[in-house]
Amino acid sequence: MKKLFDEFRKLEGNVLCIEINDDKVMSKLNKNDKISIYELYRNKKQGLFKKRKRIKTKGGKSVNIKKFRKIFKKKSIEYIVINIDNIFDYYKFLVSNSIYICNTKVLVYGTSEYIDADVIAKKFKRYDVQITNFKEDNKYLCVVDVSKAKFSRLKEKFYIMIDTFINIGDMISYILTS
Questions:
Q1: Residue 173 burial by CB count (10 A; 0-12/13-18/19+): exposed, middle or buried?
Q2: Within the chain, what is the greatest distance between any pair of CA atoms?
């Protein structure tokens, strides 16, 4: 977490925070006067299916997590901070969307019990970006420099299809081994 807070001091411009529930992290972000913060968090309404898979913006508009880049234009956000623990089941969409929206750096942090930093690094390396991983105890931080990222719709669809087949294979192997 110390490295994450060091990165927060360097931020300037627009920052998009995705599913940051920790008050300590948000207070460190709010101390920086050089940034303007946009927050996206999951809208957890109780209903028939117990929760909705949507993100709710600070203004109150509810947005589908797979399509939140319709709100933000291409390369309109300088920095994105993602807590992958709370939203790890949608990280395959977050990788392509964050490459599309962000023009400087993406900061992904979490614990290694849900998903490993190496898996996230593989997903981002597909787009020819510079990645730095930091690990301490069971927490990790991936700093992804997306300033020279190459993005195309066809490549994005191809990678989402490959990730879906990998997830299906993982489910089948989990079922067979348990």
A1: exposed
A2: 53
Domain CATH code at residue 34:
3.40.50.150
Tokens of 95: 């990788």
For 100-153, the DSSP string reads HHEEEEEEEEEETTT--HHHHHHHHHTT--EEEEEEETTEEEEEEE-TT----H
Packing angle of the helix pair 91-101, 117-125 (nearest 10 deg): 50
Mean pLDDT, rounded, for 29-58: 63
Strand 102-111: give its sheet, edge to edge: 62-64, 54-57, 35-42, 13-18, 77-83, 102-111, 139-145, 130-136
Residue 171 lies in a domain: no
Q: Please count the structural domains in the chain.
A: 1
117-154 residue pLDDT tens: 777 788 888 888 888 888 888 888 888 898 888 878 88
